[in-house]
Amino acid sequence: MTPPTRLSWKDVRDEIHKAILSGRYGPGDRLPRDADIAEEMNCARSTVQRAMQDLSDSGLVDRRRKGGTRVRAEPVTRATLDIPITRREVEQRGGRYGYQLIRRVEETAPHSVLATFELTTPQPMQRIEALHFSDGRPYILEDRWVCPETVPEIRDLDLTSQSANEWLVLNKPYSRCDMRFFAITAEPQMAELLETEVGAALLVIERTTWIETAPITTVKAITAPGYRLLTTS
Amino acid sequence: MTPPTRLSWKDVRDEIHKAILSGRYGPGDRLPRDADIAEEMNCARSTVQRAMQDLSDSGLVDRRRKGGTRVRAEPVTRATLDIPITRREVEQRGGRYGYQLIRRVEETAPHSVLATFELTTPQPMQRIEALHFSDGRPYILEDRWVCPETVPEIRDLDLTSQSANEWLVLNKPYSRCDMRFFAITAEPQMAELLETEVGAALLVIERTTWIETAPITTVKAITAPGYRLLTTS
DNA sequence: AAAGCTAATATGTACGTACTTATTTTGTCA
DNA sequence: TGACAAAATAAGTACGTACATATTAGCTTT
After folding, report:
1. Mutate which of B8, B17, B81, B207 to test chain A, going by most A C-beta atoms within 10 A?
2. Both B149 and B187 in a single domain?
3. For residue A230, is it within any domain?
4. Which has the closest alpha carbon to A9: A40, A54, A39?
5. A188 has pLDDT over 70
6. Is residue A147 located within the same domain as residue A62?
7. Which residue has the higher pLDDT, A22 or A51?
8. What is residue A162's DSSP assignment?
9. CATH no. for residue B118?
10. Rounded Cα distance, B12 and B230, in Å
11. Contact flag B185-A202 (C-beta cutoff 8 Å)
12. Which residues contact residue A112 at a Cβ distance below 8 angstroms, ignoring those fewer than 6 apart?
């Protein structure tokens, strides 16, 4: 006498996911129509549609009108990354957060920065270098450019106690964010700031944000040796 | 006389997103109830619900029953990464793909590998080292462990022409995948295989997959110098 | 006061219908 | 045979209702 519990779209999603995992449907195979699955599983088509949309979002299946649903022929491994404010990241790991402004100048942005922003006309930008600490040890070295045209407040902002990272995230929501990850070897200056040896391998997390097409900021977060970036499971 | 075009949930989502971007609702602020937004925007509550769910998924707002919807107080930068099969990645960049098996042995997995799989009992695993090439130049060095208990087929598999990467992705769908990113300096052996100098900074993409709780494979994709990992915009 | 019960409330979800839209298939005509 | 138009198809979406569920607020009891 189990109660006639209705299927949630997540149940349906997991069911279909399992069918794919089991090999019942292999890469490229076509799945039944939503309507048929709905009938078979005794639920509404809209429920199946919601489930399928989720599977499509996670890259497991391809859906096309009239073409139906098929298992992706060349699957991708899709992962989601959460990058919190650095202060919060440190605190969540149980560390004591520290922050120090290193340098702050306004100068014409180099070509590489303009290119990152997809700009062609040169313009002055604020360059801000700062260090984030965890338990007194260097954690992330931040090399940032901020566009004063989009963010005029930056000029009057006190960045000795609050980091640009934090102020921007809280006050300048973006509509587009590109991220890049790569490795570099520590140059002498970086090495000194991060209290490591020259030549150490460092993971760099580079982020660029826009509001519509107006550039906000681009930042290289140069992490201390041993830093590991994890996906959210 | 514009046609009375109905609002799609994506329209509603973008509208609310814009309201947040404009600063009308700041971090921590509470948004109107779904029902009120629905009335204001002249659509059904279910439409607003779908929009809000998406905003919640992308980390912009927090939703709680009875508590209502509020803008996330400590926003996170959420990014999505797509990692395709290496062959496809090379080909999409317009390169000619090459592959070479370097080494393949079955041995007891070291503790670090067991720990990655969240296993406690030692067991034999296949270790597979292989090189992926782009236009004849080393592109990714793959250091992989496969669990024969979960993937018995691996023992009889010819890996001289097809990479384990490709076979696994096409034949062993997973239910869980953890990823880690970090930087290392090239050791002599790696440097030789990747045709670079000892000490070069290399980005490592480490992936571990399970089917339910059964370990499938864990792999360190050691990328050639200059490799950049990008988010899908 | 503190603890526990009750009511109120906002989101979560399913359902079935109606309609829209992209894509493929089929059919027609030159 | 090829080009083009028409029909068929399957996903995409909106809507309004009904009900479920988590969480808060208020009220009662000790």
Report:
1. B81
2. yes
3. no
4. A54
5. yes
6. no
7. A51
8. S
9. 3.40.1410.10
10. 29
11. no
12. none
